[in-house]
Specification:
Layout lengths: L7 H11 L13 H8 L3 H8 L3 H6 L4 H14 L4 H15 L6 H25 L3 H4 L2 H27 L8 H8 L3
Family: Belongs to the Tic20 family.
Main location: plastid
Subcellular location: Plastid, Chloroplast inner membrane; Plastid, Chloroplast membrane
Length: 182
């Protein structure tokens, strides 16, 4: 284990070796039921990311399928500003901190929470831009890139979860491994 005085590159390399995406916990590879349970929390960053797709929805009618499928969940989630807060704490306390659940489920729940936090921060940054930038091409580009990135990240994580492997998103996955120890 590297010491605090070691150069940052060596510490990061050692931590990456410790938290390899090929890591298989002591409780073995996840079965189909745990994979399905592990994919459910990714609905949170998905519906948070759908908010940024307004430019895409106007240009591509195929993307409206996402709104058709997840629209009711999106409306219920954002119906009250307390609901996202309660869902976050419930997921964190009931799933992530529950050592009786498999590491795979806890890891994916925490990763979905961190992706959701990243999307909330992106929304805050965009909302605090001057109105001229928000409605300009710059604001549209920022929303579109946030939308595409969020959908891509959720799809990447969902694929790895269904396959039964750990999705490795730089920085996010490292933070997840720090929070969710085997």
């Amino acid at each position: 284990r590297p010491t605090a005085g070691a150069p940052r590159a060596r510490r990061v390399a050692a931590r990456a070796a410790e938290v390899s995406p090929d890591y298989v916990p002591a409780d073995g590879p996840p079965n189909a039921a745990w994979r399905c349970a592990a994919i459910l929390p990714y609905v949170l960053p998905l519906i948070e990311g759908l908010v940024f797709g307004r430019e895409i929805y106007d240009q591509y009618e195929v993307s409206n399928l996402l709104l058709t499928v997840f629209g009711p969940v999106l409306n219920a989630y954002h119906a009250n500003s307390v609901i996202p807060f309660l869902v976050f704490f419930a997921l964190f306390l009931v799933v992530v901190r529950n050592n009786k659940l498999p590491h795979f489920v806890r890891f994916n729940a925490m990763q979905s929470i961190l992706l959701d936090i990243c999307l909330m921060l992106a929304g805050l940054v965009i909302s605090y831009l001057p109105m001229e930038l928000q409605v300009s091409m710059v604001g549209g580009f920022m929303c579109t890139m946030t939308f595409v990135t969020s959908i891509g990240a959720v799809a990447y994580c969902a694929y790895h979860t269904l396959v039964g492997t750990y999705a490795d998103i730089p920085v996010v996955s490292e933070a997840v491994y720090i929070q969710v120890r085997p």
